[in-house]
Amino acid sequence: MTAGLVSSFGRCGGAAAALSTVLHTRQPLPFVFFTKWAMHDFHTSRWSRARSDSQLRRTHLGRKCTETPMMEMVSVNRYGGNAKREALALAFRTYRSVCQSSETLQAGREAVSQVQLDDFAFGDDEMEEVATDFACLYLNATVLFVSPPSEEMMVGLLSCLSKVLHNSFHWECVLSVLVALLHPEATSARVFATAFTMMLRESLGESVPKTFSRDGVVLLLLSVARATAILRENEASSKDMVYLLALQQNALVELCCTPGAAPLPREELLVLTDAICWRFAATGGCLHLREPSLDSVVKQLQLSSKTVLDVLVVSECAKLFCASCLALVPPSSEGNPRPQCQHQWQTTLDPLVSHLDRLVRVHSIVDALCVFVGLSVNGDARARYRKYPLALLEHLQEEQDVGNIFTELLRSGGSDVFAALTSTLTELHNSGEDDLADAVSPLLNALSTEVPRAAASSS
Fold first, then answer.
1. Is the sign of the CA dihedral 289, 291, 293, 294 positive or negative?
2. Residues with Cβ within 8 Å of residue 414, at least 6 apart in sequence
3. What band does 320 get if pLDDT is binned at 50, 70 and 90?
4. Are 396 and 365 in contact (CB under 8 A)?
5. Distance (Å, whole) CA 86 – CA 240
């Protein structure tokens, strides 16, 4: 797999480039994606909870004691004797639970700015867990007070944490912050993503610890997807990309291993589709998933309940359709068809396509582009589903005739989406001789006339 991945990083197929454009127009799954991770709820309920790993152990004096059954990361008493730690914990608790005024916000930012890397003291074995708690508190405080850490602090802190993160809860605290900080437009995005990759390699290798909760797996997938996108945009080394994709594959398997073959909840289903789409874009046009891993992913993408579809908006359904098409394409290195799997998925995709077909009139240009990318990659889906894509093309043509949507797209700075749509429709037109290819022609003509028209109107 490594050789295939490395060879694909230097290029990006048309479908992968178009999908990358789609993904960049969407807001990434946010830090508060899950209600239970909203800032205030996260820092009240989850930071004071029973420890699952409480057990008897011997102290340095040889006495037996029970480890503290509760984790009180935001307790001032936990950091007694350290003025900077106490100040940050107090500012955190005050802003979180008492008053969200500009004064308490500024006090929190000042407390964050006073913390230095030396204040964590990871080298003290007796206080290592307290130091880890404080590191989690500090990182989450940088998000709460909108005061990102410096590059030097982040690199040093993640390096230290790679040696002391052992339980899932600490990992969840750190990963949730990285989900918030890893934005492609951030000036320190590449430095943070590189430091994060190094921390993962040193701490986890390519495996997901069995102690990880499902929340931990979900957060790992979210943060790895963001790091992958950032490093790819910045032309990172293929070694880092190969590593992240290998870890992502194992995390996908963990996510898809639900007891009793239960379907994924809505949130986890969206995380899965997001990871598949980013993986396809990052590798330049191939998922590079081993057969057992791919089978487990395909199984969880199945939809049999109308209830599931009804809670998804059109953009989420379009991405789910695209991800399903990508997952059904057999690895190019094997070149062997998987008729049983494909037949199964052609059947299970029917409810999704029927659902989308009823919502054609509310598809945006980006929604349509996402669907067309899936069809351009998966010829079986193109052959099976005719009515829906034809209706989608007709809808876009009507919107263009009435409202010049392509002109407005160019005027509003959507040149990347315009180029991706043109490229994808051209691929659909050239890769088959069917009614879909015929229906694409008028839309391509409309697209080709919009560039000079938009240029003339702007001059």
1. positive
2. 25, 365
3. very high
4. yes
5. 38
The C-alpha angle 135, 136, 139, rounded to 5 degrees, equals 85
Cα→Cα distances 248→17, 18, 145, 200, Å: 20, 22, 30, 11
CB 351 within 8 A of CB 306: yes
Sign, Cα dihedral of 444, 446, 447, 448? positive
Report whether 197 contacts 240 (CB < 8 A).
yes
Average pLDDT (107-133) is 84
What confidence tier does 421 reach under pLDDT thresholds 50, 70, 90?
very high
Question: Which pTM was predicted?
Answer: 0.81
Residue type, 70: M
Q: Which residue has the tokens 């909760």?
A: 213
Contact between 311 and 363 under an 8 Å Cβ cutoff? The reply is no
Please name which of 93, 100, 99, 104 lies closest in space to residue 44, comparing C-alpha atoms. 93
| Six token digits for residue 393 | 């093309």
3-state class of 64 per DSSP?
Answer: strand
Which is higher by pLDDT, 122 or 58?
122
- 419, 379 Cβ separation under 8 angstroms: no
- Domain boundaries along the sequence of the chain: 1-28+256-262+273-459
The per-residue pLDDT for 345 is: 61
Report the alpha-carbon distance of residue 29 to residue 224 in Å, rounded: 12
How far is the C-alpha of 85 from the C-alpha of 114, rounded, in Å? 10
pLDDT grade for 329, boundaries at 50, 70 and 90:
confident
Give 408-417 contacts, CB < 8 A, sequence gap 24+.
409/365, 410/450, 410/451, 410/454, 411/454, 411/457, 411/458, 414/25, 414/365, 416/21, 416/24, 416/25, 417/21, 417/22, 417/25, 417/365, 417/366, 417/369
